[in-house]
């Protein structure tokens, strides 16, 4: 047993051990914060059941179910291979089938950090464990673990409070000291408050002078003077800045120059020059179109190829862009000294296509439609996968059971497995874990665990070699909801 433990706490340790021996496998030690639940749990696991496999886990807000399961299995079995995809009960039974466990004692400090799923697993395992398994959990409120025996930890009495302080402090004031007596009374038997006693802070020095108050007064006066000086400097600087800004604005107004507007005569000259340029830009394009139309009329009675060749030659014989550009540049220089203008573009490919299309016979369009026939591929095979049964699981009762036969990350493997064995009542659950999709192939439903055990005994040797195990429908529903 740990040193420095009070007689009442030692008796409570013996009472917890007696309840375990009477057949209670799950006990919850209930008490307010600071009453010494953790210290009592450490004393219990140190003093009792020396031949058991023991595990003491200090829970916190950052504790995860996966880490708690791994620590419990490592303290119970030798070098276990923990499967993070399985629950606490499933891991326990799988590892126990490989290497039977010795009698175990688990102490979990801080039940408020346990999830509802893990609490249910602890209750289930305390009842179904094949060997002796004692579970002690500490909590601040009763009924945090249903079906568990709550043992309440009471505060210390006045005498035990003094006895506890004498164990940890060598020098204490006399019992009739008013400050010490008031401290013990206000502690209300809470060990954490009693052990926070500090002798130097509980003494009152009546001879203390007023020097600290005088120093504080001087400090406040100096700070106020400094702040007032800074405010005056900031006001003067702001005034100088505003004066400088006003001077710069006045100088800028004096230097502003008035720009002269263009006269009416200059505007008329510019408009006349623009009209002349527009007329000269349109003229080359009109000449090209008239030339093409003339050649089209001449070769109308000729064969199709000769008609197209004649039209194309007429287009090619039109004046090029560079020649038109040079002529336009000379003309614009004669009329006015206006800035650079855009020249007329040469006949583009779109105009050539329009003229050639006009000369094509209508029969060509009829023949072209026959070529646009879409050929659809034949013998196309679509593989249809069996859909999952997640909605079926969500509608089932939480008290029903299933037998998990297979868990894979490839749907093809699950489909081949189902096609190979052709078992009745096959249900497939699709669950997402750690970014991967898993498919659980199960046999379901079974109203009771005994029905599931009977169905497992009827499986063939190949399926039994894969070690199928039992799984509650409620757990599958929770995994489906988490993946959604």
From TrEMBL:
InterPro entries: AAA_22, P-loop_NTPase, SPOR-like_dom, SPOR-like_sf. This is SPOR domain-containing protein. PROSITE patterns: SPOR. It comes from the Bacteria. Residues 323-352 are annotated as: Disordered. Keywords: Membrane, Transmembrane, Transmembrane helix. Residues 395-473 form the SPOR domain. Coiled coil: none annotated. It holds the Pfam family AAA_22. The chain crosses the membrane at residues 219-237.
């Amino acid at each position: 047993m740990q040193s420095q433990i009070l007689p009442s706490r030692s008796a409570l340790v013996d009472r917890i051990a007696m309840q375990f021996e009477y057949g209670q496998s799950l006990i919850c030690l209930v008490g307010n914060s600071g009453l010494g639940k953790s210290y009592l749990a450490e004393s219990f696991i140190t003093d009792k059941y020396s031949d058991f496999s023991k595990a003491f886990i200090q829970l916190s807000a950052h504790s995860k179910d996966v880490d708690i399961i791994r620590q419990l299995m490592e303290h119970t079995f030798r070098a276990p291979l923990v499967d993070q995809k399985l629950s606490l009960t499933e891991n326990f039974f799988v590892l126990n089938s490989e290497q039977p466990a010795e009698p175990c004692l688990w102490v979990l400090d801080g039940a408020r950090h346990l999830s509802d799923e893990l609490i249910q697993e602890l209750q289930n395992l305390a009842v179904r464990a094949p060997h002796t398994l004692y579970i002690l959990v500490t909590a601040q409120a009763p009924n945090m673990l249903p079906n568990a025996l709550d043992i309440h930890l009471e505060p210390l009495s006045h005498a035990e409070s003094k006895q506890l302080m004498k164990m940890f402090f060598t020098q204490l004031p006399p019992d009739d000291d008013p400050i010490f007596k008031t401290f013990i009374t206000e502690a209300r038997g809470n060990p954490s408050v009693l052990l926070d006693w500090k002798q130097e802070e509980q003494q009152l020095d009546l001879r203390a002078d007023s020097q600290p108050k005088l120093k504080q007064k001087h400090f406040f006066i100096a700070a106020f003077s400094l702040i007032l000086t800074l405010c005056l400097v900031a006001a003067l600087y702001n005034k100088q800045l505003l004066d400088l800004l006003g001077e710069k604005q006045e100088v800028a107004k004096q230097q502003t120059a008035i720009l002269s507007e263009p006269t009416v005569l200059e505007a008329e000259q510019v408009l006349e020059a623009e009209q002349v340029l527009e007329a000269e830009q349109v003229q080359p394009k009109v000449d090209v179109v008239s030339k093409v139309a003339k050649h089209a009329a001449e070769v109308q009675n000729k064969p199709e190829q000769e008609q197209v060749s004649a039209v194309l030659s007429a287009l090619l014989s039109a004046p090029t862009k560079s020649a038109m550009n040079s002529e336009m540049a000379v003309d614009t220089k004669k009329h006015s000294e206006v800035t650079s203008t855009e020249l007329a573009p040469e006949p583009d490919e779109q105009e050539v296509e329009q003229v050639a299309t006009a000369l094509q016979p209508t029969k060509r369009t009829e023949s072209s439609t026959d070529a646009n026939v879409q050929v659809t591929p034949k013998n196309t095979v679509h593989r249809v996968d069996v859909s999952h049964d997640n909605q079926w699981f969500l509608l089932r009762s939480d008290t029903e059971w299933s037998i998990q036969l297979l868990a894979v990350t490839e749907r093809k493997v699950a489909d081949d497995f189902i096609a190979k064995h052709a078992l009745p009542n096959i249900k497939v659950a699709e669950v997402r874990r750690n970014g991967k999709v898993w498919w659980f192939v199960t046999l379901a439903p079974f109203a009771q665990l005994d029905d599931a055990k009977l169905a497992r005994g009827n499986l063939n040797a190949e399926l039994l070699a894969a070690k199928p195990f039992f799984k509650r429908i409620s757990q599958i529903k929770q995994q489906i909801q988490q993946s959604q």
